[in-house]
Amino acid sequence: MMNGQKILITGGTGNTGRRIAERLAAQGRAVRTGSRGAPRSNAFEHVRFDWDDTSTHGPALDGVGAVYLVAPLPVLDPTPQMLPFIERALESGVRRLVLLSSSAIPENSSGLGEVHGAVKALAPEWAVLQPSWFMQNFTEGMHRRTIETDGTIISATGTGRVAFVDAGDIAAVAAHALTDETPHNTAHVITGPEALTYAEVAAILSQVTGKTVTHQNVSPAQLAERLASVGLPQDYAEFLAGLDEGIARGSEDRVTDTVESVTRRAPRSFMDLANASF
Asked: What is this structure's pTM?
């Protein structure tokens, strides 16, 4: 990253974006967040940024040397919005791109995997973050609601294991990828320190909260129907249900050392996050 240039954080009010912005601002970096919503902090510059409104792209990129890319949601194929923006960013002088992808999405697969391939092929300096499932899904996201209302976690994961990762650890890796003098030029699969079944997560939450929490396993079709019923597009609901089906087959049963190798500290455990969140 060239000194004096700003770092643009798209999705700047989201799970990882706001944490990255706070971390970089605390380091004295010139940070600009971009989102459709209002900023959560006045500690850094914020601009309106909308993937579907190209008039917001130029102002967001002005004076920027690195960009953190978060795909629009819930969009199954973000390439029509993201690929032209990436080209525009590079033409405007951006050198470093860091893309938030997923451990479940291979490079050059359709949709976000194609964006992964483009970042790798086009950017002089780059990194792609492929985190496992966020721990915050249970403390801030979709599972928190059912945990609090009826003491259940609903998934189609069966007995499959996931090495859930703290969004703060993803942000720490991203901050290094955006600012380290030597570009990472690699894809980082990011996990927490242990792989857990959803039933084991429920047991931890029961222990922490003192209330019984159980895992309710449903079929992928039932999960897709449930997700669509709360407003997700049908294709995206089916995509997410398919990811749960992959977990049931063991696709996420792995632990990597990425957090420690990049940040020089151990990743946060789910027990630690749960104790801090409930």
From this structure: 0.96
DSSP the chain: --TT-EEEEETTTSTTHHHHHHHHHHTT--EEEEESS--S-SSSEEEE--TT-GGGHHHHHTTEEEEEEE--TT-S--HHHHHHHHHHHHHTT--EEEEE--TTS-TTSSTHHHHHHHHHHH-SEEEEEEE--BTHHHHTSHHHHHHHHHSEEEES-TT-EE--B-HHHHHHHHHHHHH-SS---EEEEE--SS-EEHHHHHHHHHHHHSS--EEEE--HHHHHHHHHHTT--HHHHHHHHHHHHHHHTTTT-----HHHHHHSSPPPPHHHHHHHH-
pLDDT, tens only, 1-29: 555 799 999 999 999 999 999 999 999 99
